[in-house]
């Protein structure tokens, strides 16, 4: 069966300045993203929190890797499936509290589940407006340029979001003004239930960059080191004032658009094909094959992550929901409500 991208993960990917310690830390973050994600899928199905849950299982490399080693002042504009960005920069406890919609969440429990954000980490809480975070990231990048600050904005979007007018306007504006922003397009072949072939008349969504005069590249988003060696130079280029880059990452979400979506519109053969291209075991194989990770270290990492997740769940479930009055607090400027301190 032919899918949009058939190149297998590279067996000996080139490296871009990652030490053995950093490679292992990257593995820890990728595995933490996967284990947290799978745990919260189970918690949702057990009725432990309301709403729904947007899983990013299968796409971890596209969000964890670009966010790794950014400066604290760099900005991230995520959407609803960018758990990995937050895993890298935010405490697990506040991520769990956001999913549970508790008062100690950064958004006071007022946003949709999985709309993660954390101001101390410079990650904006996204809205459900598709591609809206790209517009905000471009605004932040413009501010960096005006202030002559050496910082960079990352803007994440799915392949379906690239058909939105505001996204194209943002990309065009960034190209014209050579802003320090990197646009990451996660092409997981499906925009909810709409196939990528109905969104663009090409296989490589990096062609979206052609019309605005911006460098664009398509890569295997499940090859951890390939993602690193592509995003790291793009970030460095933006930081030097040389303008934006668009990176399309071919990847796949294992499950439905959300946990209430059975995803029965996808061929089983397609799902199985991509599950065999799981980025985490492939990276683990690379580390072990190069004697940068042992089975004992893997076990210790898993135990550490399990404990962190347990503590995050306890933190969220022990908290209360916010008062009803908070619904008005961010709407009316003169509204005042007694509110406990939030993270």
Topology, element by element:
Elements: H1 20-45, H2 60-67, E1 75-77, H3 83-89, H4 92-99, H5 132-146, E2 153-158, H6 165-176, E3 181-187, E4 190-191, E5 194-195, E6 216-220, H7 224-239, E7 245-250, H8 268-275, H9 279-289, H10 295-317, H11 326-329
Parallel strand pairs: 1-2, 2-3, 3-7, 6-7
Antiparallel strand pairs: 4-5
Helix pairs in contact: 1-2, 1-3, 1-9, 1-10, 2-3, 2-7, 4-10, 5-6
What labels would you give this structure?
11 helices, Rossmann fold, five-stranded parallel sheet, single chain, 40% helix, 9% strand, disordered N terminus, 343 residues, alpha/beta
Characterize the structure shown:
This protein is of the alpha/beta class. It has one domain (about 50-320): Rossmann fold (3-Layer(aba) Sandwich), CATH 3.40.50. It is built from 11 helices and 7 strands. It has helices at about 20-45, 60-65, 85-90, 90-100, 130-145, 165-175, 225-240, 270-275, 280-290, 295-315, 325-330, and strands at about 75, 155-160, 180-185, 190, 195, 215-220, 245-250. A 5-stranded parallel beta sheet has the order 1-2-3-7-6, sandwiched between helices. A two-stranded antiparallel sheet has the order 4-5. Strand 4 and strand 5 (about 195) form a beta hairpin. The protein is globular and about 50 Å long. The termini are far apart.
Summarize the entry for a quick read.
The chain is an alpha/beta fold. The chain is built from eleven helices and seven strands.
């Amino acid at each position: 069966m032919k899918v949009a991208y058939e190149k297998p993960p590279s067996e000996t990917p080139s490296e871009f300045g990652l030490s053995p310690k950093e490679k292992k830390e990257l593995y820890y973050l990728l595995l933490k993203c996967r284990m947290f994600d799978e745990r919260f899928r189970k918690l949702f199905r057990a009725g432990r929190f309301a709403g729904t849950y947007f899983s990013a299982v299968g796409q971890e490399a596209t969000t964890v890797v670009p966010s790794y080693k950014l400066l604290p002042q760099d900005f991230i504009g995520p959407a609803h499936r960018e758990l990995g960005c937050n895993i890298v920069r935010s405490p697990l406890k506040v991520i769990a509290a956001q999913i549970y919609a508790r008062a100690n969440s950064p958004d006071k429990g007022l946003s949709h589940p999985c709309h993660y954000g954390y101001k101390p980490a410079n990650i904006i809480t996204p809205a459900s407006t598709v591609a809206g975070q790209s517009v905000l990231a471009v605004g932040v990048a413009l501010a960096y340029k005006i202030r002559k600050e050496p910082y960079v904005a990352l803007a994440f979007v799915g392949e379906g979001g690239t058909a939105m007018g505001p996204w194209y306007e943002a990309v065009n504006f960034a190209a014209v003004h050579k802003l320090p922003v990197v646009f990451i397009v996660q092409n997981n072949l499906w925009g909810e239930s709409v196939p990528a072939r109905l969104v663009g008349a090409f296989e490589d969504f990096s062609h979206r960059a052609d019309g605005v005069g911006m460098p664009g590249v398509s890569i295997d988003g499940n090859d951890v080191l390939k993602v690193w060696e592509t995003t790291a130079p793009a970030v460095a280029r933006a930081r030097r004032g040389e303008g934006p880059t668009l990176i399309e990452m071919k990847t796949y979400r294992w499950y439905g658009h959300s946990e209430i979506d059975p995803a029965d519109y996808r061929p089983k053969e397609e799902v199985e094909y991509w599950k065999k291209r799981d980025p985490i075991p492939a990276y683990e194989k690379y580390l072990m094959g190069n004697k940068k990770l042992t089975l004992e270290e893997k076990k210790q990492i898993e135990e550490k992550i399990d404990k962190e997740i347990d503590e995050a769940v306890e933190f969220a479930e022990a908290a209360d929901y916010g008062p009803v009055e908070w619904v008005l607090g961010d709407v009316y400027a003169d509204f005042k409500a007694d509110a406990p301190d939030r993270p």
